[in-house]
Write a structure and sequence with these properties.
By secondary structure, the chain is mostly helical. The protein has seven helices and no strands. It is globular, with a radius of gyration of 14 Å.
């Protein structure tokens, strides 16, 4: 299951070409974003990838609930925590998923680019 923080970043980065393809793919195949964000729609990491996507490698495969987080997702989440933690250290830990989503969507592009760069490097 993809964490709310990771979904937040995916949604926030939707203006990047690769993420635009990803969000279109997810919306087409899985429907309601709100249900996905609330983890009401179980999705495997491998299902998220449009054909030939470089975002998530196929070997990350099938994630059952409670399974260990794949390294690339973990590093992405950690980076997101670091970025927002640096900007708003006292508020981040108190926010729920919706609050984090709103905050991340409001983040500056340079910070989002840094997270995207880390994500890309983790998947090389």
């Amino acid at each position: 299951i993809i964490s709310a923080e990771t979904w937040s970043l995916i949604l926030s980065l939707s203006h990047f070409d690769e993420f635009s393809k990803l969000t279109k793919h997810i919306t087409t195949n899985f429907g309601d974003w709100e249900k996905i964000l609330r983890c009401e729609v179980p999705i495997r990491v491998v299902d998220l990838c449009p054909p030939h996507s470089s975002l998530v490698s196929p070997q990350e495969g099938d994630l059952a609930a409670g399974a260990p987080t794949p390294q690339s997702e973990l590093s992405l989440k950690q980076r997101l925590d670091q970025i927002v933690g640096l900007e708003l250290p006292s508020k981040w830990s108190k926010l729920d998923a919706v609050g984090r989503l709103c905050l991340v969507r409001a983040m500056q592009p340079r910070l989002l680019r840094a997270a995207l760069k880390d994500f890309a490097e983790a998947n090389l």
